[in-house]
Design brief:
By secondary structure, the protein is an alpha/beta fold. It has helices at 10-13, 20-31, 46-59, 77-85, 93-106, 158-173, 193-199, 201-205, 232-250, 263-274, 288-294, 312-319, 323-329, 334-348, 395-416, and strands at 2-8, 35-42, 62-66, 89-91, 119-121, 125-127, 136-142, 148-154, 180-188, 211-217, 220-229, 255-258, 278-282, 303-308, 352-358, 373-380, 383-390. Helix 2 packs parallel to helix 6 and helix 10 packs parallel to helix 15. It is elongated.
Length: 419
């Protein structure tokens, strides 16, 4: 079976909030091999909501709708679903008691219009919402040609929708799918998206199962390898030879698997696994390297300290960068990056010091040192590993890519030392 996701809310159309519901639902459906062919968003308009259901059911077996389950007159998703299946709205005593209980819990008076939340299309499976007043529902029926159609109505707030999706909707839908979908993410660094795709174009052109989907991110390319089979274990068997072939082509130093697709997660895993301590010394990235490392749970075991030394004075006073180095080579130089990395390791007493210094722009570049030039250095086991990169784009893009490159340089420095 295939599905369409219909999200209701004028605030979504106006961009006031990000539509995270569609992303979450799509991921959950993919895990049980139910394909999502379309996603739609409509405002709080009765006519357009009804049309959204008509269109959705015309091209999908399942329509999962979020939003429009509240007590006000524009909350009419239940009525629209009932109209599509040509059934009446009926009162549910348990849902009425649920709404009253929730208002009692909130210590608020029970408005009369909340009675609307106790009515559902006849024949619905009603799903108790433990985190809000609006219960959800599932309604299975047929279209005019006798095809099975399933309408699922969920509340809009993610904190209410997600538990219902996990605990009620997915278990219900599993009966309509005997397969699972499983994917792994292969991170590729030091190779651009076009070049990386060209290197494996023959595989992509002949793919069936698994499939390979590339997408670029700051300073890296991620290839998602996805398989469909009757079990996760079988999916992993299908993925393994494809994954190994990709790594072989890109090179082990340029490609590796992470569950999240984040370079920092791979780096943090290595640091923790091998008990290697680290300190950061950042200029142009302004703490981004430290921040991304700190986002990984358990990193406190090995991350000791982060220095943001933006000015020359800070580099000299905090990291002991020599004045002569700055005067002779400048703040943006290999020599300064080395002294920053070494100074961070010495100041924090760590195994590794990693530094970034560059021209993030949009101003400040010269012919010799243009905007986008960044020097990165990792000091580890008495050795300096220096990387010179030249990026283009906005200030944020340059900084983000530099942070990614710094984190990956830490990884390659550890692995290159045979640790």
């Amino acid at each position: 079976m295939n599905a369409e996701i219909l999200c209701v809310g004028t605030e979504l159309l106006h961009g006031d909030i990000v539509n995270t519901n569609a992303q979450y639902i799509s991921k959950k459906l993919a895990e049980i091999a139910i394909d999502v062919h379309y996603q739609s968003v409509v405002g709080d308009n009765p006519g357009r909501i009804k049309k959204g259901f008509d269109i959705g059911f015309s091209r999908a077996d399942i329509v999962i709708c979020t939003g429009g389950l509240g007590p006000t007159q524009d909350d009419i998703t239940k009525e629209a679903l009932a109209e599509y299946f040509n059934v009446e709205m009926v009162y549910d005593e348990n849902s009425y008691e649920h709404v009253k209980e929730m208002y009692s819990r909130f210590r608020k008076d029970f408005p009369k219009n909340n009675m609307r939340q106790a009515y559902f299309p006849k024949g619905s499976i009603i799903l108790d919402n433990a985190n809000g007043t609006a219960n959800a529902c599932i309604l299975k029926g047929e279209d005019g040609e006798g095809n099975i159609k399933i309408g699922i109505l969920l509340p809009g707030p993610p904190k209410e929708m997600e538990p219902l999706m996990d605990n009620e909707v997915i278990p219900y839908l599993k009966q309509f799918s005997n397969q699972v979908v499983y994917g792994e993410k292969l991170v590729v660094v030091n190779i651009g998206e076009s070049a990386a795709e060209e290197m494996i174009l023959d595989i992509i052109e002949n793919q069936t199962n698994p499939t390979i989907a590339p997408y670029a991110s700051a300073g890296k390319v991620i290839f998602r390898i996805t398989a469909k089979a009757d079990s996760k274990e079988k999916c992993m068997e299908l993925i393994e030879p494809v994954k190994e072939e990709l790594i072989s082509r890109f090179g082990k130093n340029n490609a590796y698997v992470t569950e999240t697709g984040k370079v920092e997660d791979k780096t943090a895993e290595l640091l923790i696994e091998k008990n290697i301590t680290i300190a950061t010394a950042e200029s142009c990235t302004g703490g981004m390297v430290a921040s991304r490392l700190i986002s990984y749970p358990g990193i406190s075991k090995v991350f000791m300290e982060g220095f943001v030394t933006y000015s020359n004075e800070a580099k000299m006073n905090t990291l002991q960068v020599k004045r002569e180095t700055l005067e002779r080579f400048g703040a943006v130089s290999e020599e300064t990056a080395k002294e920053m990395a070494y100074g961070a390791a010495q100041a924090a007493g760590t195994d590794i010091g990693v530094s970034t210094t560059g021209v993030a722009g949009p101003d400040g570049g010269t012919e010799e040192k243009p905007v986008g030039l960044v020097y990165i250095c990792v000091y580890y086991k008495g050795k300096f590993n220096v990387l010179k990169i030249k990026n283009t784009g906005s200030r944020e893009i340059i900084r983000d890519r530099a942070a990614t490159s710094a984190l990956d340089l830490v990884r390659s420095s550890i692995e290159g030392n045979g640790q």
